[in-house]
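Every protein is a chain of amino acids, and every chain bends into a shape of its own. The fold becomes a row of whole numbers, each drawn from a learned catalogue of backbone shapes. The protein below has been through that process, and both of its lines are reproduced in full.
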Amino acid sequence: MSKELIVPHHIAIIMDGNRRWAKENNLNSIEGHMAGSKNFKKIAEACYKMGVKILTVYAFSTENWKREKIEVNYLMKLLALFLKKELSTFSKKNIKLNIIGEIEKLPKNVRKIAEKVTRNTKDNKKGILNLAISYGGRVEILNAVKKIIKDKINPDKINEELFGNYLYTAGQPDPDLLIRTSGEMRTSNFLPWQCVYSELYFSQKLWPDFSEKDLEKAIEEFRNKQRRFGK
């Protein structure tokens, strides 16, 4: 990668295509999710190595709860295993972990592990990983509205800055670049408020096949954009 490459401060990724990858490789969906999990770690490490400060990934949506119970249970076990295994990595690399989404819907054991990791990494400064679990953008916005009403905020005081402080990503800059794999060209209820001015990059690669070179290609394309923000 060129030394002059401008690296996005905040990248968001919709990691799509695990199940299709498994089908194409004559594997079951669980093996696809396992491959996707391994690739996530590789891509996350590449992002921080390149200088990305915040990485937000769509790992499990509110709609994913509707999948077959055996698949959902496996995904929860995979999440718990990842958090346990990578706690020392987060600490070593000074990365702060946030779990964004309806955390209360997670199985109790998974929630306890998630809370432990977020608590133990809360003072880390080098980078941030937002793991979107049981996440839905519309639910996030509705929850923000409910909190504002509960706090009895004067309507005249409500502006974009205040509203942003009620979102899961409060205090963080919006994503500069949103990447989606698997060839689908939609954002699927992911960060609808935060990504209004994000550059969008759609890759044909299924998530387990999305490589560091593909990441570099997405960032190269980002560099060539003229970001006017409506000006």
In short: The chain has seven helices and six strands. The chain has one domain: 10-136+175-223. The chain has a mean pLDDT of 95. The longest strand covers residues 127-135.
